[in-house]
Amino acid sequence: xxxxxxxxxxxxxxxxxxxxxxxxxxxxxxxxxxxxxxxxxxxxxxxxxxxxxxxxxxxxxxxxxxxxxxxxxxxxxxxxxxxxxxxxxxxxxxxxxxxxxxxxxxxxxxxxxxxxxxxxxxxxxxxxxxxxxxxxxxxxxxxxxxxxxxxxxxxxxxxxxxxxxxxxxxxxxxxxxxxxxxxxxxxx
Length: 188
Description:
Blueprint: E1 6-8, E2 14-16, H1 32-35, H2 42-58, H3 69-74, H4 91-100, H5 112-130, H6 152-179
Antiparallel strand pairs: 1-2
Helix pairs in contact: 2-4, 2-6, 5-6
């Protein structure tokens, strides 16, 4: 899943397009272990989510414009501080992206549950920041906090959508395999 596969509809809702499940991916979204030929692991999907978030937040994938398998294998992407428009990003979000892009799979989050917990916390924090302040005793409401140019909720929504898509690709085949065939061939 690449940033080019995440589209926003007229209401600003994220939509995933072009599931190329058979595609091995490009060096920009494959983990160092995948590029080295290691068997697939959940940590690889977490790395892929990190590359997606990095791209969505900064406007370019890690190591852009000189993306090579050698750079992915030997370098750590720069840590984000601002988004593609120059607006500052929350520290928790930049920490999450950095953890997802760790070269060592053991340093990445334990799974999507851990990632989702961080994203849920970020959404809750963003919601609290965007609510109007309570009116003071004099009855005049305080001014609302000005919304950011690119609301954090949009980034987090895209990340949750990507996480769900990755989970569907990983989990659904196992569920289908456990159930067995839905119909059996008629006896002859």
